[in-house]
Amino acid sequence: MTAQANVTELAQEIGFDLARVAPLEPPPRAAEFEAWLDLGYQADMAWFESQRSRILNPQGILAEGRSLLVLGLGHARSAIHIEGGGRIARYAAGRDYHNAIGRMLKKLARRLRESGLVKASRGIVDAGPLMERSHAARAGLGFESKSANLLHHHWGPWFFLSELIIDQEFSPSEMPSIGSCGTCTACIDACPTQAIVEPGLVDSRLCISYHTIENRGEIPRELRAKMDGWLFGCDVCSEVCPFGGRAEGGAERFGTHAIVEENRLIDWLRSSKEELAAPLIGSPLQRPKRDGLARNAAIALAHHPSEDGHDALRSALAEEESGIVREAAGWALAYAHAQDSGTRTALERALERAETESERAGLTASLEELG
Ligand code: B12
Ligand code: SF4
Ligand code: SF4
Description:
The chain is an alpha+beta fold. The protein has two domains: 1-256, no CATH class; 264-364, no CATH class. It is 44% helix and 10% strand. The protein contains 18 helices and nine strands. A hairpin with a 5-residue loop joins strand 3 (80-81) and strand 4. The chain is elongated. The termini are far apart. The structure holds cobalamin (B12) and iron/sulfur cluster (2 copies).
């Protein structure tokens, strides 16, 4: 057996579903990446600019690095519905994959060292300066798609990517990725905000996943009515994809975090930073922080109106400390509870107490929308 076959076999022994080798070279989609940045599709993810040259030249990540061991781990599971309405992206329902895969990468690096196959390595999962999908496509781990997700004939889009940069020069897998979207355009047609602006290219400024996870400010008003109740992430382009319909097994691997099972939609709006801190440990839902989650919950409550939701929105508008959450609560009341006699007065009072220009502008727009 070749050394390369040993490496990929070890990766599979440790639990990765997919393992292949790519050369440690610039990503094949470097030109598309630069065009994507130049068009501003990265929205406010400022780290793209600071990491730009590293992403384009990954050889700089590890001086001794020669090859990229590209790994895939399936996370297919059924849809996650929140009590009271709303959804959470499937990948985020259980244990944080950054931690789980990070541990697997460390174990793999240790085993490779012990077996003398590799001396130096560096693990990356998601947050590293790599165009993971482009390198993985080159290694033949899956094929590029119109939704931008990398697809696998069994897992569809339901798998995480991670990499181990290693100091050995193995001949790359270089298998052409088998499969293609063909004439299908289901994801482009289904995206609620038309964020897939061209086949394979997502404008983050329009993407629900971006706004619910990465955006720390106000979510653009024109998108809110299209957000379909997503509290965290968005699975629409993955769910409509005909590939991956048969995949399963992620629920057992990552479990379901207690807070995802227990919290109702109104709890995500009502809970304070202190109340959420401990229960959120180990969950990917920590990323938008408490105010981001409360803002998202306010908007989701407009899509799933209820009496409890109405009360929670009214309390948030009157008592909430974060202006971003107050403003979102005001929008949700005007959108879903315009007929309620108290909505106008509540918005007018909130406008008197508004702290920033953008909060004032948002609340004024909501009052105007009441007519
Ligand atoms: C920033 C980021 C985001 C941003 C921007 C998304 C984007 N499309 O660029 C936001 C927050 C919106 C996001 C959302 C999601 N993300 Co994200 N994200 C990333 C991150 C950190 C960087 C991506 C990046 O560099 N984008 C810049 C663009 C230009 O690069 P790219 O999308 O990888 O480029 C590919 C396509 O554009 C395509 N392409 C380019 N031109 C063309 C032309 C044609 C014709 C075709 C067919 C394809 C094509 O080829 C490129 C390479 O394969 C990666 C991790 C990483 N370090 O790579 C995870 C990653 C891409 N995300 C992932 C996931 C799971 C998601 C979500 C599904 C999460 C969710 N459920 O909410 C959504 C899906 C949105 C989507 N349709 O892309 C997974 C994808 C796994 C997979 N099987 O593909 C990754 C790899 C994380 C991981 N380690 O597993 N994400
Ligand atoms: S994650 Fe949602 S909003 Fe973003 S591109 Fe996919 S379907 Fe559109
Ligand atoms: S839904 Fe259709 S077009 Fe979109 S990624 Fe899947 S196969 Fe490709």
